[in-house]
Design goal:
This protein has 334 residues and is of the alpha/beta class. Helices cover 33% and strands 24% of the residues. It binds nicotinamide-adenine-dinucleotide.
Length: 334
């Protein structure tokens, strides 16, 4: 079974380069979202614990099965631990044979950013120039990078309640040569923005964005509200936007739309990519992509990274599944 550590993911990204990696990942996501009907889907399994959540995210089609283990503990950084940590597995569906086990903390940041950019590619204004990022923690630079390969961005406006996270973001972003505007609050950050990503972490009903802050039609990608009792967008703004979700049964439990009545109308993204519906900022006004993170996106990044690892001879084959001539003689291993 192939095992990929963090060093292996770093080596692969260096070999492939950011731009090609994001472009391959966005194409893989688009392909899998187009094949939506072929997947066996379910809302993720969540164990809610004090101050956080631990989740398992399984999905399969006729070829492969994947699952991700992921947590969300917003207070973890106070103890020097990540808010979000993840590992994942890819297996063959027909036999159940595990193919690969991988780190997924980095892969989650890549797949989340690539999904944001893919959604924006299909729904935001094509000439979007200004990105607002609210929450400059672990996910933030990845978000910028993915958008930068889709849009001709000129400015990133950003805000975090933690000044140290803003300094870290600015330092990491310097090398990309984009105009960086630190802001004093969310209202200031979204001023003039064409694209807004909220990626804050706090296990409560937050109002990071309110309706009166939005002065023109924008594409909003709300990815920090991803668990019951954890939202970022004021109810009135959700209500007045055209809302697109990944998988409705999961988003109703975890997304911004948990604030809305059960019959609130929203669209699942696969309807858009399959050409059944057309939703975008120029025809519908403000579009809210109410992201919670769906297992299909982990499947896409795992299947892509598996093929890249094989192609580039990266990772270690580890003896995690017994290889025997007589498979009924498991006892012979001892
Ligand atoms: N939807 C998805 O697919 C997906 C994927 C990954 C992470 N997430 C979520 O995205 C969020 C960010 O993840 P991360 O790994 O970057 O976490 P992180 O803890 O590294 O960063 C979060 C940042 O938000 C800031 N913050 C908290 N409240 C704020 C507020 N009101 N205004 C401005 N900033 C605020 C914190 O100071 C922190 O710097 C988390 O809630 C996580 O659960 C969602």
């Amino acid at each position: 079974m192939l095992v990929l550590e963090i060093e292996d993911i770093k080596e692969l990204i260096q070999k492939v380069a950011y731009k090609d990696f994001f472009s391959k990942l966005i194409s893989t996501l688009e392909e899998d979202y187009k094949n939506w009907d072929d997947f066996d889907k379910s809302p993720r399994v969540a164990n809610h614990v004090k101050g956080g959540v631990i989740e398992l995210m399984p999905i399969s089609n006729a070829d492969m099965y994947s699952f991700k283990y992921v947590n969300g503990h917003p207070k973890n950084p106070d103890q020097g631990k990540f808010t979000v940590m993840a590992t994942g597995q890819l297996s063959l569906t027909q036999t159940g044979e595990p193919l690969m086990f991988s780190e997924m903390t980095l892969l989650t940041a890549f797949r989340t950013a690539a999904t944001s950019a893919m959604m924006a590619k299909h729904m935001a204004l094509k000439d979007s120039k200004v990105l607002a990022l609210i929450g400059t923690g672990a996910q933030s630079e990845f978000q910028y990078l993915a958008y930068s390969f889709i849009f001709d961005l000129e400015e990133v406006r950003f805000y975090d309640t933690d000044p140290k996270a803003m300094i870290k973001f600015e330092k990491n972003m310097k090398k990309f040569g984009i105009k960086l505007t630190p802001c004093k609050n969310s209202r200031d950050a979204v001023n003039g923005a064409d694209l807004i990503t909220t990626c804050t972490a706090d296990k409560k009903y937050q109002t990071v964005l309110t309706k009166d802050m939005i002065k023109k039609d924008v594409f909003i990608n709300a990815l920090g509200g991803d668990c019951p009792g954890k939202t970022e967008i004021e109810k009135e703004l959700v209500e007045s936007s055209t809302v697109v979700v990944e998988f409705l049964p999961q988003s109703k439990i975890e997304g911004e739309i948990q604030q809305m009545p059960d019959d609130f109308i929203c669209t699942e993204f696969h309807e858009i990519i399959k050409g059944e519906k057309s939703i975008n900022v120029s025809s519908h006004g403000t579009v809210l992509y109410d992201s919670v993170g769906f297992a299909l996106e982990d499947y896409s990044v795992l299947r892509l990274i598996y093929s890249l690892a094989k192609e580039n001879n990266v990772g270690k084959e580890m003896n995690l599944i017994p290889q025997l001539d007589d498979v009924k003689d498991l006892f012979s291993l001892l």
